[in-house]
TrEMBL record:
Name this polypeptide is given: Aldehyde dehydrogenase
Active site: E212
Family: Belongs to the aldehyde dehydrogenase family.
Entries under InterPro entries matching the protein: Ald_DH/histidinol_DH, Ald_DH_C, Ald_DH_CS_CYS, Ald_DH_CS_GLU, Ald_DH_N, Aldehyde_DH_dom, Aldehyde_DH_NAD(P)
Record's keyword terms, sorted: Oxidoreductase
Keyword Oxidoreductase on entry: yes
């Protein structure tokens, strides 16, 4: 795509935002319903594309990709009128008599840059929030999920108004052109090094950003936890989408005794979900690219593998077995950065205090997970660690609710979305204060402030 075409697309979207096309609430609802129709009509194409790009099963695609977008649409359509209603406030005695309200104003034209790992959900859920907020939108799907990117583009072109939403497909070159344009908000999901590129480009135009990044999301399993249930919840959260999930448990900490008891439960949970040979399981995904496959394979130390390992790994199919490593040290390469694949290292700690200290020694994660029978231990993690969110007794499934703002903190990003939080991310909270001219109470605060000096 040429630079001039990108510039023309942005200009068209800006013109329609300026003309107020995306402002009327009824029009936003109509556009969201058109998106819903498009997704339903093209559901099979989306599922096929997700299978081609990431080996996702139709069920996993429904649960983690298409379903969540439809839920976002449903929530927005149902609540948009109440979200857009001005919120009254009292400016207080100093300004009395007066009235105040806060209106949620559309930001204008949004740029959404999406990643490859949940290429439907993470492209279209922010789109729902941007439309709900009354913005025109330029969407940039990830080139690393090319089949999905193509279907999304044709779906949008067939079902949505081109004055409202446009799609630019492409990679670094196209995104670089896009980032040189001026937008009113940039919503980026992906890794933190590109996040910095986005933030720098946005600073040039003072454009606000939402950065949905990643990091190493820790799990702590406390003594006395029901290990069979915890193991299933951890295995599911870790190996869904072959571990390529921003909030996937990255590493697991427990005391040596708990780890020893947990390993057989984890092994059993992997076998229950993916069978003896996960390569043959229709429910186990593939690594997105050979580059990522090579990176992940090099992290697997077969001597440490208590589940899986590199035997059976297949570069051509980009298959790497669900793998659990025991006995890796804290300075093992697997602990150097976000794993983002089907490898779970188990690390011994003395107890909650050391687990908390280890979390605090790293960057703030997107999510932290704690499995503990003790409310007091849960509270310690809540108070003494910082993360985008904290999930107690579950992994991953907490993203399934539109009632929870989802986003990172520090190195895992800033800003949040899902449900009302998404609407808020794409709008400006504008206070409006109204004061009648009479009585002229403001006279009391005009200068001169000092009483005139008396002449002696
Ligand atoms: P990716 O490679 O698809 O990149 C994301 C987007 O950035 C793509 O659209 C890509 O075209 C664009 N991009 C890449 N290089 C660029 C450059 N040099 N300049 C401008 N744009 C560029 O996806 P990824 O970054 O590999 O995604 C994985 C990361 O995203 C992980 O760290 C993961 O934790 C994080 N993630 C976060 C969330 C979340 O919601 N917080 C969700 C999914 C993934």
């Amino acid at each position: 795509m040429t630079t001039s075409r990108i510039t023309a697309d942005v200009a068209a979207l800006r013109a329609s935002a300026d003309q107020g096309l995306a402002r009327p609430v009824a029009a936003r609802v109509t556009e969201l319903e058109a998106l819903r129709r498009g997704i339903r009509t093209r559901r099979r194409d989306l599922q096929r594309a997700l299978a081609a790009d990431l080996g996702k099963s139709a069920t996993e695609s429904s649960v983690t990709e298409i379903g969540p977008v439809l839920a976002e649409i449903q929530t927005a359509v149902k609540n948009l009128r109440s979200w857009t209603r001005p919120e009254r406030f009292s400016p207080g005695t100093l300004l009395a008599p007066s009235r105040g309200s806060i209106v949620r104003e559309p930001l204008g034209t949004a740029l959404i840059i999406a990643p490859w790992n949940y290429p439907v959900n993470l492209t279209l859920s922010p789109l729902v929030a941007a439309i709900a907020g009354g913005n025109t939108v330029l969407l940039k799907p990830s080139e690393l999920a090319p089949a999905t990117s193509r279907v999304i583009r044709s779906l949008i072109e067939e079902h949505l108004d081109p004055a409202w939403v446009r799609v630019v497909e492409g990679a670094v070159e196209e995104t670089t052109h896009l980032l040189a344009e001026r937008f009113d908000i940039i919503f980026y999901t992906g890794n933190a090094s590109v996040g910095r590129i986005v933030a720098r480009a946005a600073a040039e135009h003072l454009t606000p950003t939402v950065l949905e990044l990643g990091g190493k999301s820790p799990v702590f399993v406390d003594e006395g936890t029901d290990l069979a249930i915890a193991a299933r919840r951890i295995v599911w959260g870790k190996f869904t989408n072959a571990g390529q999930t921003c909030v996937a448990p990255d590493y697991l900490m427990a005391t040596p005794a708990t780890l020893e008891a947990l390993v057989p439960e984890l092994r059993e949970a992997v076998r229950e979900m993916y069978g003896r040979n996960p390569m043959r399981s229709a429910d186990y995904g593939r690594i997105v690219s050979e580059r990522h496959f090579d990176r992940l394979r090099s992290l697997v130390d077969d001597d440490l593998a208590v589940v899986g390992g590199t035997a059976g790994a297949d570069r051509r199919q980009r298959y790497l077995a669900p793998t659990i490593l025991a006995g890796a040290s804290w300075d093992h390469p697997v602990m150097a950065e976000e794993i983002f694949g089907p490898i779970l290292p188990l690390l011994p700690v003395e107890g909650p205090a050391e687990a908390i200290a280890r979390i605090n020694a790293g960057e703030k994660p997107l999510t932290a997970y704690v499995f503990s029978p003790s409310h007091e231990v849960e509270e310690r993690f809540a108070e003494q660690t910082s993360s985008g969110s904290l999930a107690l007794g579950l992994t991953l499934a907490h993203l399934g609710t539109t009632a929870m703002p989802f986003g990172g903190v520090g190195e895992s990003g800033h800003g949040a979305y899902h449900g009302k939080a998404g609407f808020e991310a794409f709008t400006h909270a504008k206070p409006i204060v109204r004061k009648p001219l009479r009585p002229d109470t403001l006279r009391t605060i005009y200068p001169p402030y000092r009483a005139p000096r008396r002449r002696i």
